[in-house]
């Protein structure tokens, strides 16, 4: 068996979810909404199964979806993308990330990673032959510094894998951060694979700024988006990949030999959804922001130190003021003794640098959040 995968332990996400199932806990660990997603988009998918094409779609994706993607990102992010040569559809963003790493890395190339990070990054980099080089981000800002980047980049740097907005920190990198990273990519002739799946789930009037738009990055950026996150349909696994033609030609080869295509009915529904009025996207953000505020207020009322959340489905609690210094132990006790499942943020650090932050998912119905707060109140009162 390949040691990269056979040596991996059961993920903390599965451990906590299993404990939640066994104990009947309120599960705020897994990152998906209670809401089933927009009905009109789901109906388009159902209609396309009955009356649409169900054989192999084009390898690059349905033309209608690629053109809808170009129009969508022109409207929302000011990007000028050629639907025929610069856009590809994959079976989820994780497939897009895996394919990009396989396409761009040769054995021995170094890949700059920013921890905390999505847990798939490190094994995928290693399986592609890359050598991870970590930039460790710390609370509360989780921002970049020139010194940290200088320590990670080298003449062997080939790729930067960059998640913005950042899960699990629920933060957004500043324009200054983006420009600093762009400067390092240009100086070291590195390609930025940008995991931007949370680009629409941002709050307080913010608009996502893609790395693709920064000076000097148009020809060296792979932008990866997720219809599952845009429409709160996390099980759909429809990824959208954008890159300049020289990069896309190689990315497409990797995609061709991984999944080849993505279900055409889902592609048709996503094409429809990307053209929805601004009111849908603004309303989605407003609803999640309301849930964020509701849960934040409840946690603070119970004495928890809540870190700012400006994007994603998550918010984080700093547990050191509670006298807690081990987030894994804290989360185990929380689910076993108080019936609330959360995720220790140390699970997102390859080097375990931060052990005092815990992540909750607030993309839930009011009743679910209220039930969690009631159980957390029992913890405070020692019941």
List keywords for this structure.
13 strands, 2 domains, Aspartate Aminotransferase, domain 1, PyrdxlP-dep_Trfase, PyrdxlP-dep_Trfase_small, Kynurenine-oxoglutarate_AT, seven-stranded mixed sheet, Aspartate Aminotransferase, domain 2, 14 helices, alpha/beta, 383 residues, transferase
Helix content: 40-55%
Give the topology string: H per helix, E per strand. Answer: HHEHHEHEHEHEHEEHEHHHEEHEEEH
Please write the CATH class name of the largest domain. Alpha Beta
Mean pLDDT: 95
Spell out the CATH superfamily of the largest domain. Answer: Type I PLP-dependent aspartate aminotransferase-like (Major domain)
Distance between the termini: 47 Å
Q: What fold name goes in the CATH topology slot of the largest domain?
A: Aspartate Aminotransferase, domain 2
Alpha plus pi helix count: 14
Strand order of the largest sheet: 2-8-7-6-5-3-4
Main sheet summary: 7 strands, mixed
The oligomeric state of the chains shown is single chain
Q: In total, how many domains does the architecture comprise?
A: 2
The structural class is alpha/beta
CATH architecture of the largest domain: 3-Layer(aba) Sandwich
